[in-house]
């Protein structure tokens, strides 16, 4: 039986890429820079932000961008334009918890970028019991050792977990750790053909579809 459902955040639990594209172009506009194309954004999606911005806007002042990005990011969060989790996804988490599963986040975000998700008044409170990110894991996706801290701290074995993610790197990490992987394709950023089929236990077109899959594993 699956005891823990480990969930990626961006473009899995929450559709992030489109909002991030708009946010980052607003920052570029404030800096007097031309906008990036959606194609460039998609091609670099999943990379660390400042590494990606080197390709999205060559010659960019990264320090100034990072400073302005924090301001715009907070405004987007306050306006409900970023990190908005659909009600049906929250309901799916509720079904998993009621079914006796522990829900954990495993994301490539930094601790600063997930801090607001872990506040006691956030919608994830009572649904998600822990989060693993760049600042509390020694290794990062697609390295399978990204799961080391999670497994050690929870006492779970890989066969008791399933990872839900949206990228081939998520699948590689899970497979290498001996954890079953479900590809969530709702964002449209990736297609099932982008994944090595050896790494994928199942695929879903919307996040709530994971519930019966988890229950059947």
Automatic annotation (TrEMBL):
GO terms for biological process: DNA repair. One of its GO terms (cellular component) is cytosol. It is an enzyme of class 3 (hydrolase). Its EC number is 3.1.3.18. GO terms for molecular function: phosphoglycolate phosphatase activity. Pfam families: HAD_2. Keywords: Hydrolase. This is Phosphoglycolate phosphatase.
